[in-house]
Design brief:
Distance between the termini: 43 Å
CATH class of the largest domain: Alpha Beta
CATH superfamily of the largest domain: Aminoglycoside phosphotransferase (APH), C-terminal lobe
Protein name: Aminoglycoside phosphotransferase (APT) family kinase protein
Organism: Pseudonocardia alni (Amycolata alni)
Shape: globular
GO molecular function: kinase activity
Order of helices and strands: HEEEHHEEEHEHHEEEEHHHHH
Oligomer: single chain
Helix content: 40-55%
Number of strands: 11
Number of helices: 11
InterPro entries: Aminoglycoside_PTrfase (IPR002575), Kinase-like_dom_sf (IPR011009)
Strand order of the largest sheet: 1-2-3-5-4
Pfam families: APH (PF01636)
Strand content: 15-25%
């Protein structure tokens, strides 16, 4: 997606003479991600379209939650931002993405990631009395959208979700997409990028995507992550609810954007939650 005229003008004003080095966009949502060079320094530009909600989340994370990670060089530093224009610029972090590299199978990577996640979660918690009800209502709403969930499973899902308890929840800053595709490794040190889904949530939500993939490959990866984090924050009842919410969200969102492999992954998660 090209930058809007306003975004282009803002970049030209704040970073005159910059050059585009690479396009790091995923192509599935309306967010542009560019690596640029200005005055000899590499920077990352993120820009959203009119429907974008990720830039506002990422800006909040930078402004309120990331300082301890940035101070350690383990998250990008915010350089420029314009919330109205849905534009932000951060320092480029050196390193290689972990996903699809040997580092994705190394326990040391997960130990470092666990340490990093503990830093992100280490904030005064907010107790939210309405979280459980919102989670239930969100999942039921998603089940009312287009999806390819089998009718029998759909009936079981709706019955269980409608009956979920709705206790208060302890919320902390979460990444929202805690996964090797958003980790970098540089000189053996793990850093995090892409806070476009950051929000206040229960801490265990940041483990769902790992548990559905990498933790299955090798128990040592899960153990290493918990070692780095300082324990396992999951409890059975809330964990099942978050797992189902993630599975339904994955299956419905992936169908909407046409990502069939990711949709299949959501269906696998549902099958595991509701075995025959």
């Amino acid at each position: 997606m090209p930058l809007s005229d306003r975004q282009t003008a803002l970049l030209a004003d704040r970073l005159p003479g910059h050059e585009v080095v690479a396009d790091h966009g995923w192509g599935l949502v309306g967010t542009t991600v560019l690596q640029i060079r200005h005055d000899g320094a590499d920077l990352i530009v993120k820009a959203g379209d009119d429907a974008d909600t990720h830039i506002a989340r990422e800006l909040r994370a930078h402004r309120e939650w990331l300082a301890p990670l940035v101070a350690r060089g383990r998250a990008p530093e915010l350089r420029h931002a314009d919330a109205d224009a849905k534009l932000l610029v951060t320092r480029y972090l050196p390193g290689a993405l972990v996903q699809d590299t040997p580092a994705e199978h190394e326990p040391s990577t997960y130990r470092g990631a666990g340490e990093l996640l503990a830093l992100l979660h280490d904030r005064p918690a907010v107790v939210d009395e309405g979280y459980g009800a919102r989670l239930r209502d969100t999942v039921l709403a998603r089940l009312g959208r287009p999806h390819r969930i089998a009718p029998g499973l759909l009936a079981r899902l709706r019955a269980e979700v409608a009956g979920w308890p709705t206790p208060a929840a302890r919320l902390v800053p979460t990444h929202g997409d805690w996964h090797p595709r958003n980790w970098l490794v540089h000189d053996g040190v793990v850093a995090v990028i892409d806070l476009g889904r950051a929000a206040l949530r229960p801490a265990p939500t940041d483990l769902v995507r790992l548990a559905a993939r990498q933790f299955r490959w090798d128990p040592a990866l899960e153990t290493a992550h918990h070692d780095g984090y300082g324990g396992d924050p999951r409890e059975p009842g809330p964990w099942r609810r978050e797992w189902i919410a993630e599975a339904v969200g994955t299956a419905t969102w992936a169908l909407k954007v046409g990502d069939e492999p990711f949709e299949a992954h959501g269906h696998r998660m549902l099958a595991e939650a509701f075995p025959d």
